[in-house]
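User:
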Amino acid sequence: MKTIPVRHLDDTQTTPNLLGNFIIKSLPEMLGGKDMIHELHRHDFHFILVLKKGSGTHEIDFINYTVTDYSVFMIRPGQVHQLKIKSDSIGFMIQFNSEFCSPIEKELCTLLQKVGTKNFYQFQKHRFKKIDVLLSSIFDESKNKQEEYREVVKSYLRIFFIELIRLRNKNLPQSNNKNLYAQERLEEFLQLLETNITSKKQVSQYADMLNLSNYQLNAITKQLVGKTVSELINDQIILESKRYLLATFNQINQIAYHLGYDDVSYFIRFFKKHTGYSPEAFRNNLK
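Assistant: Predicted structure:
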């Protein structure tokens, strides 16, 4: 079965490189006075776009975002996106493999997991100034490679992620320890959901992996996103279906088998129930 086009870090242009798996690029240097257009694809690495100034569109897993000033986009490995930004955009693009967060970098990995569950962050101008300084410092360190620059870059990245978390938590209802605990468990669940959806589709399977009861997990998802666990599982199945319908030419039965459905007719009914379209009609209307 043909897969969605995947871009690898090794395929990118040579730029200031950190430990062989971390790259940061200046947007003005990248764009060279031309608009950037990336067609629908996915990465096998983390992708961060930080915009001090920008205009255009960014579609992430079929949700459309308007590219604006003082914004940050976080793309996890496996997510499907397409990007169009104008030639006068200013900011930075960061790319790094999952190996960059090695087991010994537990704090950095935990922070990345927290911020990665949200794709779009919108800052106010006065709060973005700190982000701009952090990214400029990371760029300078990775370019100049002075003594211990690797550790300095990691330190700046931690602060950057913390600033994103602060912005996210500011918008949580009645931010307290109970809500923060629930948010952390939700993030764990969503990560498990994305990586296991082709083989695990039962609420109990995810509750067991999180050492929670079905009731506890449902209470968390209802509180924070207003949906049951079953609804989120169905959403993920539909999302993965859409990814393959629009980014590949695979036959419907191939996509159904990939998603763990031996009964193709059941998969077609399931998709139509949740989208209003048959898989074929959805592909023809939107591709």
